[in-house]
Amino acid sequence: MKEYTKEEIEQMDYSSMVGLVRERNRPSGGIKTISTVLRNSFLTNESKVLEIGSNTGFTSVNIALLRNCNVVGIDINENSINEAKQYSSSHKVANLTNFKKCDASDLPFKSENFDLVWCSNVTSFIEDKNKTIKEYLRVLKYGGVLVVIPIYYKINPPKEVVVEVSKAIGTKIEVMSKAKWIDLFKKISKDYGTPLELYFDEDHVYLDMEKEIESYVSEILKEKPQIESMSPGIKELIKKRFKYFINLFNNNLKYCGFSILLFQKRHITEERELFLSN
């Protein structure tokens, strides 16, 4: 196992830290969000699913478990991909899952290949959103579902929080509302010539988990072989850096909400609905 230096730990971004500590890294709302999506996306055991930014495999593996369908997960972090493969094997769905290292803005799949593309909040981390969203649309079948779970600001955050989170994830965060996220996907899909119809929309707010952070960090790091073999000083630095990220994100999420948005890829743009329900 690689022995990290003090400088490497202190400069590590969140994605690299997740790959190191093998945090399961669920989507916003966790298993309940996955269940909600599956109940409303009409997948069968013959469906093909692509998860963008599969991280350590929680979403991909649980879709395979719940729907018994084929799931491909992509990520740019090799450690996360290796952990996702192990997690999949542990749940006996390795035959249904395939994890690849690749860039979301240049997907190595043929067009109209997937029944569902799950991009969650990954698009926030990507600089060229236009090109990347067009790639989501290219590989999604007509009539297929695009799952977007954006984290957005309900309250204007302090500038220093946005700057710090941007540095932590390695991408400049744009202070966007839910409406701006929806408009972004609809505009890019229209430009691409494959309009999206938003057919499911559910809003959520985050709880303040400050009192749980210390025990959570200790639990995640407990009995991890890749960390136990390291020197005591490096292990303590890893714990400190990981805890820093969790505290930072908890503070940021005080200003945020998230929504489960399900879009269907259509051949034509539908007329606007007038008499809506709440």
Question: How many angstroms separate the termini?
Answer: 53 Å
Ranges with pLDDT <50 over ≥5 residues? none
CATH class: Alpha Beta
User: Which oligomerization state do the chains in this entry correspond to?
Assistant: single chain
Under CATH, the homologous superfamily reads Vaccinia Virus protein VP39
Count of distinct structural domains? 1
Using the alpha-carbon principal axes, give the shape.
globular
Q: How many extended strands?
A: 8
- What is the element string, with H for helices and E for strands? HHHEHEHEEHEEHHEHHHE
CATH topology: Rossmann fold
- The number of helices is 11
Outline the secondary-structure elements.
Blueprint (H helix, E strand, L loop, with lengths): L5 H6 L2 H8 L8 H12 L6 E5 L5 H10 L2 E6 L2 H13 L6 E5 L12 E7 L8 H11 E9 L2 E3 L5 H11 L8 H15 L3 E10 L7 H9 L3 H4 L3 H22 L2 E10 L13
Parallel strand pairs: 1-2, 1-4, 2-3, 4-5
Antiparallel strand pairs: 5-8, 6-8, 7-8
